[in-house]
Write a structure and sequence with these properties.
By secondary structure, this protein is an alpha+beta fold. It folds into 2 domains: 9-208, Glutamine Phosphoribosylpyrophosphate, subunit 1, domain 1; 221-496, HUPs (Rossmann fold, 3-Layer(aba) Sandwich), CATH 3.40.50.620. It is built from 19 helices and 18 strands. A hairpin with a 2-residue loop joins strand 2 (31-38) and strand 3 (41-48). The longest helix has 20 residues, at 221-240. The protein is globular. It binds adenosine monophosphate, deoxyguanidinoproclavaminic acid and magnesium ion. The site of magnesium ion (MG) has 6 residues, from loops. Residues 252, 254, 348, 351-352, 357 line the site of magnesium ion (MG).
């Protein structure tokens, strides 16, 4: 049996009539109709299931006793949840439904998972993200309907028949720039939408279910090291779920630590590294792969082809920040080249945020902790963890460092445990020292945009198109915005965008 999630994305309309919503979603996989009647309303739309999940994909919808649940993604600690709710539910949507019937919306304070969820209950539409909004969730309200999707592009254009489009504030959400009336549900938030006698569009109430820790823990270094090793090990094991995962390996400490933990459970683990003719980290990844005995592959993407991934990266991440796109694009390029059927992918992405890994050169612990606090309060909306990044190729990814329990610990450790003995990410390095080759745990960090050469490939292409060197950064911003306007706001399929044309346009 496949242990991939039942759904990796959905778009649905809730109203009094059964008018399905066109499934403009970038996630690839079998499309399934989602239909339910609950609490006097009709829910209809489409879910996307990972390839090979077959009929099990229908498990993304659960209906019982006037309550309907749509769940994209997965829950962790299922056994504990099932025991608490005294249920023998078999799909995650059924489990969530049973837990919702026990705890109400407060259930989302309990869950550790990678999901976006919609609950339709008496007079209420409940929209919930996980702590990291790792599965983005968008909503558009009108006088007659509530439309909900895991991708903005499905709702970017207002419905033709809408009389009132909810342009105002919607508690628990933030407006999506460029698409009036479209909102994104905040990370770690439940937005409860209710109809009132006076308002024409539903009124929302927000419940926060997670916030990044703002206090820091003093811990004996040995205890901190053991705690990190232990929580990360649990997060990796809960994500294996019987399916041999594919680990995207750079050879840096973050992904190598995961490779070591996976290898302790499953041999041989599958690892894959990507590079270009401009840059790669193949040697570093190979050292880890051979030390652990993984089944390792290398993939070289020609520099020009890498740049042609831009529309796919923007369509998947639904953002226009060029720096973040430089981090995400190499992964999208890699995922799109992994043969099917759908795979379960693990990545070390995100470890640098709570550990301050991107900032190894900052002088003081005070500054390091400020940067960590700032990064933890600005990640929401960057969609760095979106399942669509791998979903465009039908795969399902997850991020053990952003497991809620791992993240809570990593953020909260005092910065002297993160910067120690002249090493960045010390506590993680120390936790893995005996499992990895010496060169790996001592290796200095290289960002994926550097390791793949993408940062310089993009700059070089713009310079070759005639962009003056001092305007390259702003040309990247303009290009990213244009791509966003076409593949997200206008819904142009990524494969119909000509990147070479866009590059040329930058000269003018
Ligand atoms: P980074 O923190 O920049 O090294 O990248 C974030 C994550 O992306 C890593 O933890 C790896 O899981 C993955 N990654 C980065 N670079 C590569 C690469 N060249 N090949 C495969 N995976 C990579
Ligand atoms: N990363 C980081 C995250 C990049 C910064 N994101 C943020 N501040 N929200 C990571 O893997 O943790 C690299 C390349 O390093 C991407
Ligand atoms: Mg990293």
């Amino acid at each position: 049996m496949s242990t991939l999630p039942s759904l990796i994305g959905f778009c649905v309309r809730i109203g009094t009539e059964d008018i399905p919503l066109a499934a403009h979603l970038a996630v690839a996989g079998p499309r399934l109709p989602l239909q339910a009647r609950a609490a006097g309303t009709v829910l209809s739309g489409t879910g996307v299931s990972p390839q090979g999940n077959g009929a099990e994909g229908r498990g993304g919808l659960a209906v019982d006793d006037g309550v309907a649940v749509v769940l994209a993604g997965e829950l962790y600690h299922r056994d504990a949840l099932a025991a608490a709710a005294a249920t023998s539910a078999c799909t995650d949507a059924e489990l969530l439904l049973a837990c919702y019937q026990c705890y109400g919306p407060a259930v989302f304070r309990i869950l550790n998972g990678r999901f976006a969820a919609l609950v339709l209950a008496a007079g209420q539409v409940v929209l919930a993200t996980d702590h990291a909004s790792s599965v983005p969730l968008y909503v558009r309200t009108t006088d007659r309907t509530v439309e909900v999707s895991t991708e903005a592009k499905a709702l970017a254009r207002p419905p033709d028949n809408a009389v009132v489009d909810g342009h105002g504030d919607l508690a628990g959400t933030v407006p999506v720039a460029g698409s009036p009336g479209l909102h994104r549900v905040r990370a770690g938030t439940v937005a409860l939408l209710e109809r009132s006698a006076t308002a024409r569009i539903p009124v929302a109430r927000a419940v926060r279910t997670w916030t990044p820790p703002v206090s820091r823990i003093m811990m004996e270094p040995d205890r901190a090291v053991a705690a990190v090793a232990d929580r990360l090990d649990i997060a990796v094991r809960t994500r294996l779920a019987g399916e041999a995962p594919t680990l995207v390996l750079s050879g840096g400490i973050d992904s190598s630590a995961l490779a070591a933990l996976v290898s302790a459970v499953q041999t041989p683990a599958r690892t894959v590294s990507m590079g270009t003719e401009v840059a790669d980290e193949f040697e570093a990844a190979r050292a880890v792969a051979s030390h652990l005995g993984t089944e390792h592959t290398e993939l070289t993407v020609p520099a020009r082809d890498l740049l042609r991934e831009l529309p796919f990266a923007v369509a998947a991440a639904e953002i226009h920040d060029p720096d973040v796109l430089e981090y995400l694009l190499p992964l999208v390029a890699l995922y799109r080249r992994l043969p099917g059927p759908s795979r379960r992918i693990l990545t070390g992405y995100g470890a640098d945020i709570p550990l301050g890994g991107m900032h190894r050169t900052v002088a003081s612990l005070a500054e390091l902790d400020e940067i960590i606090a700032d990064d933890m309060s600005t990640f929401d909306g960057l969609n760095e963890f979106s399942p669509v990044l791998s979903g465009v190729a039908g795969h399902w990814s997850s991020h053990p460092y952003w497991d809620r329990d791992v993240l809570d610990l990593l953020v909260a450790l005092e910065p002297g445990l993160k910067r120690r003995d002249g090493l960045d990410k010390w506590v993680l390095r120390a936790a893995m020292a005996d499992r990895l080759p010496m060169q790996t745990w001592q290796r200095r960090k290289l960002g994926i945009h550097e390791g793949s050469g993408l940062n310089s490939i993009w700059s070089q292409a713009l310079r070759e198109a005639g962009v003056p060197p001092d305007t390259v950064a702003s040309a990247k911003r303009t290009m990213a915005r244009q791509l966003y306007a076409s593949v997200v706001l206008s819904g142009t399929p990524a494969d119909q965008v000509d990147v070479d044309m866009l590059l040329m346009r930058e000269v003018g």
